[in-house]
Each structure stands twice: as structure tokens, then as C-alpha cells.
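Progress report, Aim 2. The chain analyzed during this reporting quarter is listed below.
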Amino acid sequence: MKTLKKIWKSICEMFKRLFVPEKNIKSILDEEALQSPGRVIAKKFFHNRLGIIGLVGFILMLIFTFGLAIFFPLDLYRSSAFHTNLPPNYSYLSYPKELEKEGVVSIDSGVAFSIGLSEEGNVFVWGSNIYDIKVIPEAVQNANIVQISAGTRHLMCIDDQGNVYLWGYNHMQQAQIDDRYAEALLADPIVSLEGGYDRTIAITESGAVYVWGVGTNIVGQPMRRSPYIYTDTLGNPIKAVQAVANNNNLIILLEDGTIRIVGTASEVKTSVPVELTDGSVFVTKVALTEENCFAIDSDGNLYDWGSTSRQLIDVVNLSGEIVQYVPDGARTNVKDIQAGYENIVVLTNDGYVYTWGNNDLNQLNLPDDIDGNVSEIFVNAYQNYLVTDDGNIETWGLKGFLLGTDESGRDFVLQLIHGGKITMTVGAVAVIISVVIGTVIGMVSGFFGGWVDNILMRFTEIVSSFPFLPFAITLSYLLLNATVDTSEITRILMIMIVLGVLSWTGLARLIRGQILSERERDYVLASRALGIKKKHIIWRHIFPAVNSLVLVNLTLGYAGSLLTEAGLSFLGFGVQKPNPSWGNILTVAQDREVFDTYWWRWVLPGLCIIIAALSINLVGDALRDAMDPKNNER
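Predicted C-alpha cells for the chain:
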């Protein structure tokens, strides 16, 4: 039976071949013979999965570094002591919805977190959990809280029984009751708390002001003289109703509508309007930024003074013209004023909000559709909140740092983007220099042979004998300590040149060996017989035969140059700060504290280097396989 089936199948196939026309089927070799070499190489490359992965990774790294650098410029000299070593977090403004549902009583903010108090007496903390700031003490959760406040890195609140709670960063005892004042505060209980720049400011029942924390512990420091108690000309006590502080000064608002300023002789202290201290006007509230102070009186008029360099108060330029920074609508009819560290927010009695100052962290980007419908504002640090007439919360300002910050408080995303741009640029230029030199010397040496070959190869051996790292480190040291001022751009150019000039020898030998065999081929002999110039034979006829070798070495050498630059910068002999590169960003991994605590500062640049180098190597390996004519035979 099986034999009959085979015979029948054979007969059917015979008739099919006789009467059914065959399709135009080409063999793989025939198909490749009809395609250009470049198309064949591309086809083989895109059939290599690892090559595709490498190409995608490399393109993504290019987009991350060169693409994003266009839209996110880097200010080399901007730093913030408040934002040093913050972990990755982008939820600084992500307030709990329960706070909005229960009704907002108050919101205050530190450098990377905020605290909110609802009408039901519940406390909410959101943002980054630095120093376990989001771990609300159980006593606070069980108490009926009536007031909250935030310092730069600590929190505080008071319940309806007068009990005080503090938690967070406590390196200068700012997150606890100072032992020096504990007994006095038992006799004169605290009724109001205000967070300062790593300080705690307390106002007692008698109206005395106490300050403890940073700048209050050493004799001679400007805010060590607590308590601050004031009296009138008859000796009667004048209670303090508000107190705010920055790094240099403490502003105290008294119940008689005057203000007192404690601290260093800064512009805040020396340029205060006289009418605010002599009782000519009745001040109802004060607000303080890093270098400027603001006040409003009982008629809603705004007063400002302090530094003229922060774009917070109007100034007179060299031409005698007034440069206006304060909006016209914020000068009168003011209901409330609050200050961030570098911006001011004013709420008018008409429900309009005005803000001005520094906008590096989006502090001035007010929400849309809020004109005339705002009932309250809550501003501190770099986070801003407002409550509309219908009880909704709107936010603007600093949302966080997606990949954290470095030791200078700079956004780590920007450091990685612009650091990668420098690292990849240095590697690319260095490998181009290397390939050009190696290709020219290798081709000339291999084609001409004889004494030319002998001289060039001896020169190649001399260059390859140079110890690369000691040579590069010595040159970098000389540039760093040169008597003539050497710019950072010049140093980066020198690094590119050194990397390129010292790393071409291997490619030159490879190309020389390839040319020695190619120059004996028939097409070269025919070109010579036709009288074609030697330079045209080299570049037009022989070079295309070795360009695959050049291209593969270009890609693989790129990864090597990238790693070498990163290594030099890591050791401190490459790109110097404040200019970032992946190598000098990674330098902090030598610090045990950084290695153990601030993981993002060494893990992320390390990953960038690994991904970039691995992607380039995968592309180079895939190109080598695609260009190898014997690859299909394996």
C-alpha cells in the first residue's frame, strides 16, 4: 500500500512540473547576488537580535543625552543647600485626597515634604520620607491637633491641650524642646510654633519668643539670646504675635503692630522702613525669604525691603529707571502674604493671587482658572498650595526630583543628561581621531612597504609603548596646575586628543595586514597597469575592501574611549566639576557614606556607563558578523 502511494505521488508531481508553471524562486545566494553589499549587510545586521537591542539602547542613550539636553539646559553654578542628597521622588505636591475631603485648616512645607491639618484635627504628611518624616508619631495621631508647622527638615504641631510634638531631622536639637528652655516653657507654655531654617521658633502665653536649633547654641551667634521679650516705654510687656526667621535674621511682629528684627546686620535689618518699627502703621503680618522681608498693614498695603539682587523688590538701574518686579495688583488690598525661600505669594481681598521672585523650580507657575476664586494660600520652601472658594486644593512649584539630587542640591537628571553628553562626545571625537590616524598610517604602510613600512611600523611600536594612563594623568595634572589659565573646554579638547593620539596603533596594524594581501590582488595590479595614481588606488580601490574593518573598529573603539574617559574623570584627571561627566559624577562612590546611603549617586551613572558601552559593543559585534563573508558558512 505504501509503495502505491509513493508511485501515485511521483506521477502527480511529474504532471505538476509538466503543466503547472513554476514560481520565480531564487536561492538565497542568487537573491544576495542581486542586492547591493550594503543592503546585504543591513539585512544580516537587522536579523541579529543582540545587534537590534544594542542599536535601540544606543539610540535611547543619544536621545537621553543630546536630545533632552536641548530642552533641559544646565546651570553649572546653581546649587541649593536645602536640596542636598535628596532621594528620587516626584510626589512633593501629591497631597492626600482625604485632606481635601475633610477641609483644609493649614498646610506648611519643608524642603521635600509638606504637612497638612484638616478640620477634623487629622494630620497628613506627604512628599519624600527623608529622616522618616512621614512616620507620624502615634501620640500625634491620637491627639486633637490645632496647629502645625514645618522647618526645613523637621515638623512640629500643638494639640488642644497645649502639648507640643516635634520630629524629623534633629542634628542641632531643633526637633525637640531645647534643654536650656524646658523649665521656662513649663511655666510659660507654648501657644504657637513656627519652623525656620533648621530652627524652631516658639511664642509663649506671655508673648515671649524662643528660638533653638542652628545658629543658637554657640556664644556670639545672632539668635542665641532667647527669650526675646519686649516692653513699652512704661515697662508694660508687649506680646509677640508672629515670628519668622531665615539664616540671618529673626523678624518678630508685636501686638502693637510694630516689628523687631534680630540677627546679623544684613539688608533685611539695615533697610527696614522706619514706619514699621515706630508705630506709624499697624503691621498685621510679615513674610521672610532668604534675603528679603515683606509686611502688610491693617489697610492691606504692601511693604518690602532687603536685597536688590533677588528680583523680589523694585530696583533702580544704572540709568535711573525703576525696574519693577512687584506686580501692581499686589501692592494694595492685600489679604494675606506668604513666602517661599525664593518667591513671594500675595492673596488679595478680591480672591486674586500674585507671585514673583525666582522661578527655577516653577514657583511662579500659577494654576490656570483661579482668578478671583481663591480663599486661602499656603506657601513655604518651594511648594505652593491654595484653596479655592469651593474647597478644592490647587498646587504649583517643586514636584520633586525624579532621580534625586547631588551633594550640591542639583537635579541629578540634569547631571546625568549633560554628563552623558560630555562623556559620549569625548569618546566619539577621540575614536574618530584614532580611526583617522590608524587608517592613514596602516594603508600607507601596507601599500608602499619597504622603508616607508619600516619607518611607520617602528613609529607605531614607539607610540604603543607609551603607558597610556600615566601619560594622560601627567598631562591632565600639568594642565590643571599650569601657570597660564587653561579653560575647561581646552582641557576637554586635550583629553579628546590624547585619547585619540594614543589609541590608534592596534587599528593601524590590522589595516596594514589587510592591505598587504589586498595589494597583490588582480584589480590592484590592473589599476597600476592602467597608470592610475597611487593615491586613487589606495582610497578608491583598496579602501572599500577594508572599510568594514574600519567601521567595526570604530564602533568597538568608541566603547573603549567612552570607558577610558569615564575612568580618567573618576580618578580626577578628566573632566573637572562643575562640568559633569559620568566619570566625575561616579567619583563620589569612593565615599563610604555615599556608597551606603545615597545609592542613586553611584548606581545611576554606573548604569548609564554600562548601558552605553554595552549597547555600542553589541552594535559593533553585530556589524562584524554582518560584514564577515564567511559568517553564513559557520
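The longest helix spans residues 534-571. The two ends are 42 Å apart (CA to CA). These observations will guide the mutagenesis work planned for the next reporting period.
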